[in-house]
Amino acid sequence: MKTIYLDNNATTAIASEVREAMMPYLGELYGNPSSMHTFGGQVAHAVAEAREQIAALLGAQPEEIIFTSCGSESDNTAIWSALQTQPEKRHIVTTALEHPAVLNVAQFWERQGYRVTRIGVDDKGRLDQDAYANSLTEDTAIVSVMFANNETGNVHPIGKMAEMAKEKGIVFHTDAVQAVGKVDIDLSKISVDMLSLSGHKLHAPKGIGVLYVRKGVRFRAFMRGGHQERGRRAGTENVPYIVGLGVAAKLAAEGFAAERSQVGALRDRLQKGLLDAIPDCRVNGDIENRLPNTANISFKNVEGEAILLMLDQLGICASSGSACTSGSLEPSHVLRAMGVPFNYAHGSIRFSLSRYNTEEEIDFVVSHMPDVIKTLRNLSPFKG
Amino acid sequence: MWDYSKTVQEHFLHPHNAGPMDDANAVGEVGSLACGDALRLYLKVSDKGVIEKASFETFGCASAIASSSMLTDMITGMQVDEALKLTNKDIVARLGGLPREKMHCSVMGEEALEAAIRNWKGEPPVPHAQEIGKLVCKCFGVTDAQIIRVIRENDLKTLEDVISYTKAGGSCGECQDEIAEILDAELKNRAEQKKIA
Lengths: 384, 197
Prior knowledge:
CATH class of the largest domain in chain B: Alpha Beta
Order of helices and strands of chain B: HEEEHHHHEEHHH
CATH architecture of the largest domain in chain B: Alpha-Beta Complex
Radius of gyration of chain B: 17 Å
Number of strands of chain B: 5
CATH superfamily of the largest domain in chain A: Type I PLP-dependent aspartate aminotransferase-like (Major domain)
Helix content of chain B: 40-55%
Number of helices of chain B: 8
CATH architecture of the largest domain in chain A: 3-Layer(aba) Sandwich
Largest sheet of chain A: 7 strands, mixed
CATH class of the largest domain in chain A: Alpha Beta
Oligomer: heterodimer
Strand content of chain B: 15-25%
Distance between the termini of chain B: 43 Å
Order of helices and strands of chain A: EHHEHEHEHEHEEEHHEEHEEHHHEH
Number of domains of chain B: 2
CATH topology of the largest domain in chain B: Sufe protein. Chain: A
Radius of gyration of chain A: 21 Å
Number of helices of chain A: 13
Largest sheet of chain B: 3 strands, antiparallel
């Protein structure tokens, strides 16, 4: 059975170009970039090139790029650093929609005595900008707002929000794990101070991330030890993965426009196909401001895990915000924050595409999905 | 991904006795849309109290559908009084186990069966009449009496177990302290009874 992978917000396939570029560093080029000899030094050049490739994708300077192990480490570091460098400030502003890597970190600091404001959303998942404007105070150490939401794909007005923080002298961090490579981000044009990204969301492997820290922003290391990353992140560099991430960034920059229109067209085809073929379903999110690859669709009166397992029988991979898939007993915090009614929230399915999807795959899903929903609705005691 | 047994998978993909029953003379309903799972159980009970037919409609995940399907298989042909002795543990055993987080699906089966039989007997549709205890979990509507019954039937030992089996405390979490107190009292009770034995 062929796998149809529509779960790219969870993780992505490693691009063959990325894999090939990594292979020498898993083989003969095993040197330590910190070594004095040529054998290690040549590896340092590869790391420097990757740093340039990532900086180019983001409109940043290479020295503003710090390699980390993952998006979560980047998020932890950003918040830690802002709080440690401004000990007199005791307030954190974030949103109700964040990934656990920010949500749970904010909660941790709240238990340590910090005040946390979580900006709410409307029914389309759009952040309450008035509440945001009112939340910024002299006591605010950091604002952390995700660039794009992993579940709905909503893209937030980060440029505007960062500018508002800058006017008050507040450090602005964005978790851009879902956005990098999917939407244009030019850090030379917006006043974001720190940005997190993760390799495995853009066709590099798992286990590599980046924290961008704008030049001049005060920084304190989260991981202490050696002098790597100019003393900002200790630990011997994960060279093969850094090289892979560099190539992935280059591929994203090169194929950006084409990919966005191609992936966006497939997503629209999927969404339209499903809405046309299946009664009583709705799109969750802000259709005008969404990642081109994501469609979050709720099917009334059926449960998400059951849908996923039936899709799995067809080789189709997607994910759900239903309670049953998470191991918790509640539907996703994102859909609840948006006030999605229960008869829709439990039946939400997230389809997230990539450059490797084809029209045939999308048509296969559109042709089989109505039967899946019909079968489960026939089983359900809730009708109409 | 959940680690479902082969039996659970089979009953989910090819459920037995699915759908409403036109000539049912007993119906039991538990759960709600808000809770994320719900089961409506239909029975055709003979004058002599034998369950001649059973069918179900379920909103929920694979384990909820499989538990419902298995339950209808198990009770078909049973005397009502005999069926009342079944607990969620029997359903789980026949399914070849359920992940801990999914145990509440089997409890839902037991409660629907009891509700349906009460309905057949002409009793009001309150599952576990002796259990109209104090409401503990407001999110999922679970009482202390329900919690105690599930603790006893399944020999539960931890707060996490109680949440997985009853859903109580699994949403806002406000009542978790209260659940922990109930569990502590039960565990002490159990220890003392062992001493006496």
